[in-house]
Write a structure and sequence with these properties.
alpha+beta; 768 residues; six-stranded antiparallel sheet; 13 helices
């Protein structure tokens, strides 16, 4: 990320800094000898920078610079981009408390229109750099995305939604989202920036794709915006001759920005993947191999420089292409340093992570080991990383030499092998298909793909036979089990895995013949109640069930026996009375349908559920009061995140959603004489019983008192967060998770109470 040049404090002070700044790496103890230790030291520095803001208007923010020439007289600036980077770094170090404090403070500072300005004076909360750039806003949204994906906590979704809505309002006809707003062009008015930044659009792409699947009312808008951004990155600012990105697009001239900053290339790889419409990973080779005279047409990015004034050298990456020490000026023509060779520590971390993603672990580690030569080793410097080595002008602004949040946070991110653009850890393993077993078979048959670099879970990754995507039944980093797409004609197909935008090598699979279509000839009986048994007779069902199914309408039936000509199935409980088409699907190929009439529903329709023993919710009250022990929080804050939860479940429910009602509960709890405990409940709904929790409600925790007696925890404590919309229950499920959010001792929950016992723990649901 880029810092704009500030006013010089004093000419003499600046001269003093030039003399002193070459020496910080050799002050005190030796630098960290392992990357793990370097990450821990960086974390120590970030914590100290956050603690500086305690009691200030920006309490929770992280001071962006270690002003080490006078630690008692700090500049007191918090850059918005840095806050996103620091929050991610805190989460990677397992420090949810600090991350939440920072994220919540930034949510408080968000403008009602969804934006943040580029930086704040944390001491009083006033704006410092009065520009609203899409990129810095996207980085805050990235931090919230990491929080949501890491902890399953959706509390910041309204903040993200406002931010993304604000950003996409700047999308242009070429698909790119322009820079945002500035007061620099016509102060003090906020006017549109005249450029569209490549890096800002790289920031936005995955955010839009992820939240398009989160916000149902934004699915179309965000997907369309993401498609435009992708087209801009692939077709407007990508140079397919040189295999790299340009810095951006000038909206006032309708011309490419001729500048070629280094960062847009590793960020493009981290955002879009190793390959796709373009071979993005080639941009890394462009940066590494550029060894020219330092001009736009003949650039150089890798520099080897003295880092301590004693002839000790380090090799890493410069921000820009120029190194002739030509003088630079500000926008108003004032002297602004020189364009000399430099090392940009933050950007070097970008390259390390991108090389790791490309499977070059030794290269990634080599870059990091060079970087930590410059890491602070004592005092307020301990663990900090400078922004740049020499403080040169990078053709945009004069770079700082102080330790800073961006370089230090990115050191933690790169060492963790974490991709903040997708909020996922990287595998660092070359993506490759080693073998397919078997190498031939019917369309609809099952195959196992062995190899490496597939990723621990499928996510948005795909496996294709030619152009046809396969149905996945299991996915790991080294093995994929898939169903050959039904309908493929006999012939040879190239099988390719696509992971995070990168395509593997291909392996051939031969489809021996088209899939055999199953046929249903009769049902016996042709009508009956939900929950009753039915025999399905026909042909080509296969000798065993495997992954095949029999469905009544959209609901899969439980199968008690299966052969090639006969299936014994149970009519799904909870089906309402009416006619349903029964279809058998074998290896992805569906049969014809036969009609079955459900004469009556077999499912329960209830609105009051009793919390009973054995992890059960029941429509019937218990027979005698007992208790369940809810595990201690262990002194850790688990607010909003079920941890060591006790779960209670009921299935087979039917009901019509009543929008005039809401979820309620009465949970009788007791923490004895213990102090500081807080019980929390989460209520979840699976409306069709398919295993997907369609609606989740998490309530604020209930702080128990230190008196031995039952206390009534109710929905009146307030809803902390919710996700998903209500629908009717059709053979559905309801589950509650109960856990201690805070405290150091276990809590007791009263269960199985009869009406005679009283104080019954219950859950009421909004259904008729």
């Amino acid at each position: 990320m880029k810092y704009r040049q500030r006013k010089l404090i004093k000419v003499l002070l600046s001269a003093l800094l030039c003399l002193v700044m070459v020496f910080p790496a050799v002050m005190g103890a030796s630098a960290a000898t392992t990357l793990s230790a370097a990450s821990d030291d960086a974390y120590t520095w970030l914590k100290a920078q956050q603690d500086l803001t305690i009691g200030a208007a920006g309490d929770g923010m992280v001071d962006s610079f270690d002003d080490w020439w006078d630690a008692s007289n700090r500049v007191q600036v918090a850059y918005t981009y840095d806050q996103g980077v620091a929050a991610i770094a805190f989460m990677l170090k397992g420090d949810r408390v600090r991350a939440e404090k920072l994220l919540s403070k930034m949510a408080d500072f968000q403008d009602p229109n969804g934006s943040w300005i580029n930086s704040y004076w944390w001491i009083n909360g006033a704006g410092e750099e009065i520009r609203q750039h899409v990129g810095v806003i996207a980085w805050m949204a990235m931090a919230y995305m990491t929080y949501e994906k890491k902890y399953g906590d959706t509390r910041y979704r309204p903040t993200v939604k406002k931010a993304l809505d604000w950003c996409i309002a700047f999308q242009k006809g070429n698909g790119g989202i322009s820079g945002g707003k500035t007061t620099w062009d016509a102060p003090p008015a906020l006017t549109d920036e005249v450029w569209t930044s490549t890096e800002h659009n790289e920031d936005m792409y995955n955010l839009l794709k992820y939240y398009a699947n989160v916000f149902s009312d934004r699915t179309t808008a965000y997907n369309n915006a993401a498609a435009g951004v992708k087209s801009f990155l692939d077709n407007v600012v990508w140079n397919d001759t040189l295999k790299r990105w340009s810095g951006g697009w000038k909206n006032n001239t309708n011309l490419l920005d001729p500048s070629i900053p280094m960062d847009v290339n590793p960020w493009g790889v981290l955002s879009l993947g190793l390959s796709g419409v373009r071979d993005y990973k080639q941009s890394l080779a462009f940066i590494d191999n550029a060894n020219g005279a330092g001009t736009l047409t003949d650039p150089k990015y890798v520099q080897t420089l003295d880092y301590d004034g004693q002839g000790h050298m380090m090799t890493a990456y410069d921000f820009d292409w120029q190194y002739d020490c030509a003088p630079a000026q500000t926008q108003t023509g004032q002297p602004n340093g020189n364009r000399c060779a430099d090392i940009w520590l933050e950007g070097s971390a970008f390259m390390s992570l991108a090389h790791f993603m490309n499977g070059n672990t030794s290269k990634a580690d080599s870059i990091l080991n060079e970087m930590i030569k410059k890491q602070g080793t004592s005092g307020t410097l301990l663990g900090g990383m400078p922004y740049s080595l020499k403080g040169s002008n990078n053709n945009y602004w004069q770079m700082k030499q102080e330790n800073c949040v961006s370089s230090t946070g990115w050191l933690i991110i790169a060492i963790a092998r974490y991709n903040p653009f997708t909020a996922e850890y990287l595998t660092g393993t070359s993506l490759s298909i080693g073998s397919i077993n078997p190498t031939s078979g019917l369309a609809g048959s099952t195959v196992t793909i062995s190899g490496s670099g597939f990723g621990a879970t499928q996510g948005t990754s795909t496996l294709k036979f030619g152009t046809a995507a396969a149905t996945i039944t299991s996915w790991s980093n080294t093995s994929i089990t898939a169903v050959v797409p039904s309908g493929l004609a006999a012939g040879s197909y190239q099988v390719v895995a696509n992971v995070n935008g990168a395509a593997s090598n291909s392996q051939a699979f031969t489809v021996t013949s088209a899939s055999i279509t199953p046929s249903v000839s009769s049902l016996s009986p042709v009508s009956g109640a939900a929950g009753s048994s039915v025999t399905v007779t026909g042909t080509n069902f296969g000798s065993t069930q495997g992954a095949s199914t029999v469905k009544f309408g959209a609901i899969a039936a439980a199968v008690t026996s299966w052969s090639s000509t006969s299936i014994q199935a149970t009519v799904p409980s909870g089906l309402a009375a009416g006619s349903y088409n029964v279809v058998v699907t074998v290896n992805g190929t569906a049969s014809n349908s036969q009609a079955f009439s459900v004469t009556s529903s077999g499912g329960a329709a209830v609105s009051k559920l009793y919390v009973n023993t054995g992890g059960v919710l029941s429509a019937a009250a218990g027979t005698g009061a007992t208790t369940n022990t809810i595990a201690s929080a262990g002194g850790t804050n688990h607010d909003g995140t079920p941890t060591n939860a006790t779960t209670y479940l009921i299935a087979g429910l039917n009901g019509t959603y009543d929008a005039t009602k809401a979820t309620g509960f009465n949970l009788f709890v007791d923490a004895g004489a213990n102090v500081g405990d807080g019980l929390q409940v989460q209520v979840q709904y699976d409306f069709t019983g398919d295993g997907t929790w369609d609606r989740t409600e998490t309530y604020n925790y209930f702080a128990t008192n230190p008196v031995v007696d039952w206390e009534n925890y109710t929905q009146g404590q307030g809803l902390k967060s919710s996700a998903g919309s209500f629908a009717n229950l059709v053979n559905g499920k309801v589950r509650i998770n109960v856990w201690n959010a805070i405290g150091s001792t276990a809590t007791t929950l009263r269960t199985n109470a009869s009406s005679a016992n009283g104080q019954q723990s219950i859950v009421t649901i909004p259904f008729n």
